[in-house]
Amino acid sequence: MDKFRMLFQHFQSSSESVMNGICLLLAAVTVKLYSSFDFNCPCLARYNALYGLGLLLTPPLALFLCGLLANRQSVVMVEEWRRPSGHRRKDPGIIRYMCSSVLQRALAAPLVWILLALLDGKCFVCAFSSSVDPEKFLDFANMTPSQVQLFLAKVACKEDELVRDSPARKAVSRYLRCLSQAIGWSVTLLLIILAFLARCLRPFFDQTVFLQRRYWSNYVDLEQKLFDETCCEHARDFAHRCVLHFFASMQNELQARGLRRHPAGRSLEPCPVPEPPEDLDGGSGKAYLRAISSQEQVDRLLSTWYSSKPPLDLAASLGLWGGGLSHRAPTLALGTRLSQHTDV
């Protein structure tokens, strides 16, 4: 159980590992989908190419979009690209690194589908059977051009009466299937060579820029995640205090109307509103959250976070946000705490 717990904590803390797991899961789903798919070529000259190429390219496009949707970094990358500069400059190198990482993971499942389709050959035979040069095959010598085109369109349908048990159909099908498999294995070999070169040649280049971009891309992701978690924590605390204030105000209103009295006949004294304990997170751990205590302050904080991210310098952040976001509550503790939370 301890090993499973450590493994779960590792995946929970590492968004990169989670994305790799999702990538492998999509690839496995792709294999299962292709193996369970019932391929039926229309065997019509005008629709064979449309059906074959559509089946070869449309599912990969859908899988690519699913990979982008499942990858949280794709949203973070777009937000980082489109955000106002504010007090933090935007580094195009970080955005390029994030884009490369997102595309590599999103392309895994589509490539698996395309390679499976090419190695199987059915889509290729259906799409290009009508484009075969009949002069390469001696069996078409006694056919008219219209008969040849009709015959070639039926090559993918081996149960059709026109081409059943025909040596010409088997020859054309074998030729196209071999060509499809040759393309599939060539693409596979090319991808393996590129991955091998990228892995082996990386140590020969300066790793400083790569390490910096990897660090700051992880930082951007973790910073947004920590900000969302802090907002959820503040929303829970804020809602708790609003409910307590509501019950306290209702108690005072009932007392003022004389609807609730003490059993001895004396009016109840107004009860102070209980506040959440201050020591839930180490002494004054929630002071930075409780300083924001109105809707206007929350809206101002969220707007400032979007339009003017704090600089990546804790000393500069303290000087910049020391004045606070509101005229009613000091927010120095807020700026300090958020800076500590977002430091990765």
Automatic annotation (TrEMBL):
<dbReference type="Pfam" id="PF14798">
    <property type="entry name" value="Ca_hom_mod"/>
</dbReference>
<feature type="transmembrane region" description="Helical">
    <location>
        <begin position="21"/>
        <end position="37"/>
    </location>
</feature>
<keyword id="KW-0406">Ion transport</keyword>
<dbReference type="GO" id="GO:0051291">
    <property type="term" value="P:protein heterooligomerization"/>
</dbReference>
<dbReference type="InterPro" id="IPR029569">
    <property type="entry name" value="CALHM"/>
</dbReference>
<dbReference type="GO" id="GO:0016323">
    <property type="term" value="C:basolateral plasma membrane"/>
</dbReference>
<keyword id="KW-0407">Ion channel</keyword>
<protein>
    <submittedName>
        <fullName>Calcium homeostasis modulator 3</fullName>
    </submittedName>
</protein>
<dbReference type="GO" id="GO:1904669">
    <property type="term" value="P:ATP export"/>
</dbReference>
<comment type="similarity">
    <text>Belongs to the CALHM family.</text>
</comment>
<dbReference type="GO" id="GO:0005244">
    <property type="term" value="F:voltage-gated monoatomic ion channel activity"/>
</dbReference>
<keyword id="KW-1133">Transmembrane helix</keyword>
<feature type="transmembrane region" description="Helical">
    <location>
        <begin position="49"/>
        <end position="70"/>
    </location>
</feature>
<feature type="transmembrane region" description="Helical">
    <location>
        <begin position="182"/>
        <end position="205"/>
    </location>
</feature>
<keyword id="KW-0813">Transport</keyword>
<keyword id="KW-0472">Membrane</keyword>
<keyword id="KW-0812">Transmembrane</keyword>
<dbReference type="GO" id="GO:0005261">
    <property type="term" value="F:monoatomic cation channel activity"/>
</dbReference>
<dbReference type="GO" id="GO:0050909">
    <property type="term" value="P:sensory perception of taste"/>
</dbReference>
